[in-house]
Each structure stands twice: as C-alpha cells, then as structure tokens.
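Late entry, evening session. Most of the bench is empty. Finally got around to the prediction I had been postponing all week. Sequence below, unchanged from the version circulated by S.P.
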Amino acid sequence: MRKKKFISREDFPKKLPTKKTYYCIKCKKPGVIIKPGGQEKYFCKNCNSSNSRCLIFDPKMMYEFDEDGNLIHFGGGMFILNKQNKILLFLRKKYPYLYTTPGGHMVFKENPKKCAIREVQEEVGLNVKSCKLVFNGIIKNDPCPGGADIHYWYLYKTHDFKGEIKLDSEGSGWNWFSIDEIDLDKTIYPVKYFLTNENIKSKILS
C-alpha cells in the first residue's frame, strides 16, 4: 500500500464547506483556534492539541486537487532587490518559521502579478512599480500553515519599488542579504529551491 505523502482531498469532509473553515491537522475536525505569539500555533478544542499547521479550506482561495487527490494552493511571490543587488528576506511568525521573500496565496480568479504585488505591500509595506516573472510551476514539499504541501508558484523579481519597510503581523524581523550571505538552511524550501536552481537564480539576480 502506497504511503500517503501530501495533504489531499480525503483529509477534508465529503461535502466541502461554503465558507472559510479551519480543521485540525491531526483529528481533521473543525474547531481550531489561532494562538498568536512569537510563533503562531493552532489549538484544537476537540483533541486538545496545539499544532504549527491546520487544514484551511477557503472557497475564495485559488486551489485544486490534482489527479491523485493532492491539494494544491496557488500563490505569488516576489524577490525584491536593492541597488546593491541584495535580497530582502524576513523571518516568518507562521510555520515554517523561517526566512522568506514576500508572497502568499491567490484569491479566486486573482491575477498572479497583482497577487505578488499585493503581498509585498501587505507583508513588508513596499509599493512595487514594475516586476518581471522569473518562474511559474509546481513546488512540492512546500508546506504552508494552511495545510497544503504543494504550491503552484508565480515568482517575480523587482528592483523598482518605493516606500519604507514595515512588517505586518506575519514577520518578526528583516534584512537585506547578498546571495553569499543567505543561509539556505534557514529559508523556506521554495527560496532554497529558487536559489539553488542556476537558471532561476540567474534570472533573479540579472
């Protein structure tokens, strides 16, 4: 029997909810409470467990179940580079509690570029004037706090932005890093993937 690897359709109720619902990642029942703090957690009232992730089903979010039933979330992200070609990374308060670029989930029928630009403004307070697509495709083993282990990424890069960096509630600290200063073991998996793929990395840094 093949071992289950990713969060899939069978982890959700047969009838999907019509509004945003939080399910426990362990017992799969609704009734999860968000516990904010230095590292955000999810507490389940049913099984009395505290977890770094939950299962979120939101019909307004861009998602699909693939042919194997695996849940896929769609999202947009942005590499922001300053005049010294250093990359902006911030430390997440949400799972997986590592350094990341600004980015997040697309709402239903949202334009990917508009999603990435919106996430930059929401998460780090910068206004992107123009940007360029450098990658789009599936990234597996990319767990998010909302339950999906697979994401379809639209990745952009920009040097063209204005404003002062101001983190929202999802970040606890930020810095500009040269490519040699980034400890990839302390970044989310997609950042590590992008910066170890020479083709993608050259597009980001060019």
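Two things to note before I forget:
DSSP finds three helices and 13 strands in the chain.
The mean pLDDT is 96.
Will write this up properly tomorrow.
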